[in-house]
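Work package 3, deliverable 3.1, input record:
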Amino acid sequence: MREEYAIDKFKTKRIHVMDGYADRHVLDKPYRDSGITGVYERSEVDQLQDDVQQGYAYRRWGALKPLLSNRGAVFGLIVILIFVLMAIFAPYIAPRPYDEIDLPNMLRAPSQEYPFGTDEHGRDIFSRIIYGARISLKVSMLAVCFSMIIGITLGALAGYFGGVVDFIISGITDIVWSFPVTLLAIAFVAALGPSLNNLILALALTGWTGFARLVRGEFLSLREKEFVKAAIAQGIPNGKILFRHMLPNALAPIIVMMTMELPKAIIVESSLSFLGLGAQPPIPSWGSIMSGGRSYLLEAPWIFFFPGFIMALLVLAVNLFGDALRDALDPKLRD
Amino acid sequence: MIKYIARKLLLMIPLLIGLTLIVFMIIHLAPGDPVDLMVGPNVTPEVHENVRKSLGLDKPLYIQYFTFLKNILKGDLGTSILKRVPVSELIVECFPVTLKLGIMSLILSFAIAIPIGIQAAIHRNTPVDYLSMTFALLGISIPTFGLGLLLLYFFAYKLGWFPVSGHESFKHLILPVFTVGLTDAAVTARMVRSNMLEVMGEDYIRTARAKGLNERVVINKHALKNALLSVITLLGMRMGWIFGGSVILETVFSIPGLGRLMIDGIFARDYPVVQGSMLILGASVLTGNLIADILYAVVDPRIKY
C-alpha cells in the first residue's frame, strides 16, 4: 500500500492517511473543514514540512530582527546591559563603600575625587548611585516577576475556566485595577511597615492586574482554538493544557507587557523610597538619595540631580527597548 | 443611557467595599499589636485596655469591619491619635488643597496633551511626530518627584520666581501644577496619539476621503470628534494617577494636602489618619472614574446598554 499523508493548513501536523481516512476525518468532503489541504507522498510531506519549519524559525526570530535596526532599541539594550553590569560588579566599580561616612567632606561639589559630589554625611554620591542600581533593578525585576506570576495564574484561570471563576477573578482584578498603583502600594507599606522587602511585596500585590487582564483575554480566545479543543478532548489534565499548550502561545504579549511594567516599577520604587517608605538608610536607593537632597536643594543640588538623571536614563532605555519590542512582537499593538 | 449610568453606579458598590476592605486591613496587617504601635510601650495596662476598647479591637474582625463601615457612613472617621482631633476635620482642611491641585494639573495636562497627540497622529512619521513623541518619551521617563525637584531648584531657589513652599496663592501652585501637568501630559499625549491613529484607520475616514472631502474637513469633522470621545475615558484614568501622585508631589513641595497628611500619619503610626485619608483619596479616584464614565455616555450616543 502506498504510504500517504495529509497535512493541515498550518503544515505543522502530519496525519497518517489510511483507507481514505485521515485521523478521524473522511477524506472527501469534511477534510476541508479540518483544514487538511491535500494528500501527499512521504517525501513530498517531508519537503513541505522542512520549508515550513524554516519559515517558522524565521517568523519567530525574524520578528526580532527589526529590533537590531532600530536605533532606539539598540541604545536601550546597551544602556540596560551597562546598568545590569554596574549592579553586578558594584563593589568593584564604586570607588568607595556606599555607607562610608566622612563628615569633613560633607556636601562637596562634584570634583575629580567625587565625580558626583558628596551628601550631607560626606558619602560619595557616585558610589551610592552605583550601588543604587542594585536596589532599583532588584526591586523592580522581582516585583514585576511576582506580579507576572500572580497575573498569569489568575488571568489563565479566569480565561480558561470562565463562568464563576472568571466572574470572581475579574471582579477582584477590576477592583484592584481601579486604584492607582502608587496609592495601593502605599497602603500595603503603611500596613506592613516600611522596608525594601515589604515594598517588593506591595508592588507585586498591586501590579498584577495588567497581566491578569491581558492573559485572561489571550486565553479566552485561545480556548476557542482547535488545538486546545483537541487537547481537552484527549483528556489532557487542565494544568498541562494551561501551561504547556496555551501559555507559550500568549508569551509574546506577556513579554511586551513585562518590559512596559518594568519602568513603572522602577519609578514607583524610587517614589516610595523618596517618601521614606521603601529602602531604609543607609541603603542607597536612588529615590532615598534624592530625598536626602530635598533638604539641601540650594547648597548641594548634585545630591538630587545625579541619581535623578541616572534613573531617568535607565527608565528611558527600558521604555525605548519596550516600545521597539512591542512593535516587533505584538502586531496587534502596532499602529 | 439611564440604564448604563445605573449600571455604573451599581458597580461602585463592590468597588467601595473593596476600598473599605483595603483601608480596614491597613491596621490589621500591621505586624504586632496595633494598640502597642499606637500608644507605645510606656503606658499602664489599663490605658492599653481602654484604647483597645475605644477602638473596638476587642471584638471579632467582622464586627469591627461593620462598625468601621457604619462609622464611615455616619461621617465618623475616628480621632487622630497624635493631634487628638477628629480625622474628618483634618480631611476637610486638607482635601480642598489636593482637589484644587489635582483638577488644575489635569486641565493643564490635557491642554498640552490633546493638541500634541493629535498633531503627532496627523503628521505621522514626520519630524513633528518624532519630536513630540521624543518629548513624550522623555516625559514618561522622568519621575514626578524628580521633575518637581528640578523645577523647584531652578525656578524657586535659583531664579526666585516662585515661592519655595506653601499653597496659599496662585503663585504657590504654579510649580506643583506644572510638575504633575507636564509628566502626565507625556503619558496622555502618547495615548491621544494612538487613539487618533486608530480613528484615522477606521472605515468612515476612508469613506470620507473617498468622497473627495478636503483633508482638513476629514480631520476636523470626522476624525477629531471621534478621537476626542476616547480622550474622555482617559480623563478618568489619569485622574486616578494624579490623585495617587499627589502624595509624592505634596511631599516635594511641602503642601499640606491629603497625601502629605497620609504620609505624616504613616510615620507617626497615626492609623485613623492614614485610613481616613486613604479612604478619601481612593473614593476620589473612584468618583473621577465614574464621572468620566458618565460623561462618556452623555457625549457618545452609541452607548445604550
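DSSP finds 14 helices and five strands in chain A.
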